[in-house]
Amino acid sequence: MGLLLLGLVLLLPGVSGLPFYNGFYYSNGRDPGNGHGEGLFNGVKLVVETPEETLFTYRGASVTLPCRYHYEPALVSPRPVRVKWWKLLENGAPEQDVLVAIGLKLRSFGDYRGRVHLRRDKEREVSLEIRDLRLEDYGRYRCEVIDGLEDESGLVELELRGVVFPYQPPQGRYQLNFHEAQQACEEQDAVVASFEQLFRAWEEGLDWCNAGWLQDASVQYPITLPRQPCGGLGLAPGVRSYGQRHRRLHRYDVFCFATALKGRVYYLEHPEKLTLAEATEACWEDGAQIAKVGQLFAAWKFHGLDRCDAGWLADGSVRYPVAHPRPNCGPPEAGVRSFGFPDPQTSSYGVYCYRQR
Questions:
Q1: 3-class DSSP state of 355
Q2: CA-CA distance, 186 to 357, in Å (whole number)?
Q3: How many angstroms separate the CA atoms of 131 and 99, rounded?
Q4: Looking at the DSSP assignment, which residues form a beta bridge with residue 65?
């Protein structure tokens, strides 16, 4: 009976109900007008402006995600608003809170705490500045402005400049479920690539016949030169897709994404060839650490690392980067060559080290 009466009361005109909920819990007791006949409920529209183009930057840099708002028609008097920034995640995961601001009071969340603040250099600007960008910071961000019962939002796409590379573990081809693929990329100073990143890599010439996990738990592979073992000769070049796969039961390789480095990768000049353990120790004695696969790819892509000497990496693989193809240095295309995973105790090679700046 009580619920029925509550429902009838809420339906009556002029009777105040429960405070409005729209992502935040608040009750606005102010007159929405400003004394001049202007107000959000008097034909005035709140508009949020964000850029349509994707913003590109590098790991370790600072970036500003632009966001401004205005009213149509314009209001004379300033109005207090609440601003919220959050990041949209893949795979149906809930949004990740980044920052909330009410007036001059700010609160940041999670890994963004201490790295973000609101820029208000211009009138009604509520842009988000992120410092010391991390690999996982790329993606889509939403800027929401709330004025009383009205709220509007806009999206900003942030992309890091980087390199996509296929990865398989020492156990061989198609050994990783989705969660293991995520861990494998993280261990190589990388993250699982998004479809957009893989597609961009395909446009730049990436051709790989082994299917790999992507960030949205789909499995795909890029083909620039159609051939029988890679989907057949009858298909046009493109990114082939197996669609969404079971994250725990299905096993594939993975496409990882690494971005520009804050340090330096180099081939260690050493009088002797080394086992994996000796190579790890040699880098440490040189004030560095043995390089990871993602670091070697980033050094090749962004710093033009070019060396025709095979060297150990942290995962036990042996590779070498070629920026300028030449005779007796592998295939005619630029890239990172791989010798696979030799026996770490009986095989001897050079080593690639990484020194943090």
A1: strand
A2: 20
A3: 13
A4: 128
Question: What domain range includes position 61?
Answer: 42-160
Q: How far apart are CA 268 and CA 259, in angstroms?
A: 22
Instruction: For residues 209 and 155, state if they share a domain.
Output: no
Residue 328 has pLDDT above 80, yes or no: yes
- CATH number for the domain spanning 56: value is 2.60.40.10
Number of domains making up the chain? 3
Kindly report, residue by residue over 54-85, the tens digit of the pLDDT: 999 988 899 999 999 999 998 888 889 999 99
What pLDDT was estimated at residue 1? 41
| Cα-Cα-Cα-Cα dihedral sign, residues 106, 21, 15, 78 | positive
pLDDT band for 42, please (50, 70, 90 cuts). low
pLDDT at 25 (0 to 100): 28
* Residue listed under structure tokens 């608040």: 26
Report the CATH number that the domain containing residue 315 is assigned in CATH: 3.10.100.10
The whole-angstrom separation of Cα 169 and Cα 339 is 13
Residues 267 and 207 in one domain: no
Question: Both 244 and 325 in a single domain?
Answer: no
Q: Cα dihedral sign for 48, 54, 57, 59?
A: positive
Nearest-angstrom CA–CA distance, 140 and 158: 6
Parallel/antiparallel/unpaired status of strands 311-312 and 350-356:
parallel
On whether the CB atoms of residues 279 and 309 are closer than 8 A, the answer is no
pLDDT at 84: 97
DSSP assignment letter at 165? E
Query: Would you say 68 and 49 are in contact if contact means Cβ atoms under 8 Å apart?
Result: yes
202, 224 Cβ separation under 8 angstroms: yes
Q: Are strands 253-259 and 212-213 parallel, antiparallel or unpaired?
A: parallel
Mean pLDDT of 269-273: 94
- 31, 36, 42, 48 alpha-carbon torsion, rounded to 10°: -90
Amino acid found at 310? A
